[in-house]
Amino acid sequence: MTLRCFSAAAQTNTVRSAILIVPLSTLGVLLHSATALASTSDPAVQELIRLVKVQSQQIHELQSRLAKVEKHTTHATATTQNTVKPPSVARTQPVPHTLKSGPVEPVKFAGDTPSPQFAMNSAAYPLLPAAPGSYAAVSNMPSGSAPVMGVASQIPSSSHSTTIGGLVLKWGKGLPQITTPDNAYSFRPRGRILVDYGSAFGSRFPQQNVSRTVMRAARLGFEGNVHQLSWVLEGDYADNKLSVMSAFMTWSDKMGGHLVEYSLGNKFNERGFDGSTGSDQTVFLDRDIVANAILPVKGWYGIGGAFKIFGDNWHVAAQITGNDVNTANLTNNVRDDLTYMLRSHYIPWRNKQGLVHLGAWGFYEDVKPSSSFSQNVRLLARTDDAFSLQFGPVMPIANSMAGGLEAFGIWRSAWALSEFGVRHIQMRDTAAGLPANTPFHGAAGTEEAFSAQAGIFLTGETPNYFAHTGQWATPRILHPMTDGGWGGWEVAARWDWIDATHIPTGGRAWTATVGVNWYLLSFARLMLNYTHADVTNKTGNYKGANSGNIVGLRSAVTF
């Protein structure tokens, strides 16, 4: 910078010297004339001669100084050109990295290009995952999803990012996510910690009046994507055992202007509203009775393939799965329970204040031979597994077919959900190791379940609905505790009913639950539930009519 200023000054002096040199010829003429008139005694002439000599001397001194300046400038410029490296190889001091916070970065479909292959005719991506828009609500992606779905897996109010070595480090849910600037590559840890306490009372069976703690979930895993290929792997420690949970890969693409996903691996089922939601994002300590009762033999997870297609206000999901990765095959060469599942949701009405969600689902399962069939439907909480609706053991299931309907609505900060499900079970005529006259052989029966629930955020948040897939998700808390606010407060109530009297040895039950959720942050909350249950069992250790109560607490963190 100093050399540039010096060079500029030199150039300016050069221009000025040129202006001074111009009248030298005139001064020469004057000096010649003055010499010719030197002999005159006119005082005016003598004074003119003196002034001309003084000016001539000053001009000579200026020319000498200008020559020295030009010589020094030329030498300095040459030295600089010989010592400074070209910009392409010049060494620069590293710029210190600072943590920046601000609005959420624009969400891009990983690997998205403007090529005709990815042309979008009707649907606009990325999709906004939550409504209503007037509240600027953005729910986080459901925890069971792949990381590439055309939407952001961030909470705006707690989003921070910085750039290190060309990679973007994002802090959205307490742990870092490392991505490339174009979101084509990403990697992040994921998990949840759910710790429950329950105190049960009021049952006529003392064994059911227990107070204890359980680790509902201690889950840790990882997810990532390479352009359109994403993957999830996580394990869970719950109920005193270690299990593999999500372990799958997903290929995301566009087809006919719509986002589509193809998944292979051990994946969570899509089955109803509560049944499609992870344990860390349901409003109550446990899912509703439709999700817990109308359940295939293989359970909540299964190894197989899944296909999903998404529109502006709908989605369709289809799965074909066997047993999950943790299933123990105790008999050599026994096949899986094969299950075919389908679920779809549609939003017929939506504005800036609310929406209406309608959904339908169903499954058919072909069950492998087994020794017997029984089912326990938990009615209070996981801290009291003994208080349940029990039926069986009876003849093994040959197959079953189930279906359900769901209706959900939002109006400002309030929400309501109702679900209905039915399952028809066909028992086997014979089974290996059982005599032909075994009771209930070839029998069939149907179980029905219904749930209605509603709630409201007292602090003005939008209900934690994920419109992209039609299920619960993590809400955006407007005033988190980390920002000096009171967090988010939600109150909710639910009534559940089940009738399994048409199944051999089946019974009936109903429950009523009220709950309060305090969200410290979007991904951390404390939960309080009170549940009363009435049940009539025909079999098991607790036969007859019974009722009970439980107060349950949970601390939950999802990252």
From TrEMBL:
Signal sequence segment: 1-38
Record carries keyword Signal: yes
Coiled-coil region: 45-72
Region annotation (Disordered) ranges: 72-106
Domain of life of the organism encoding this protein: Bacteria
Keywords: Coiled coil, Signal
Keyword Metal-binding: no
Protein name, per record: Phosphate-selective porin O and P
Protein's organism: Acetobacter cibinongensis
Taxonomic placement: Bacteria, Pseudomonadati, Pseudomonadota, Alphaproteobacteria, Acetobacterales
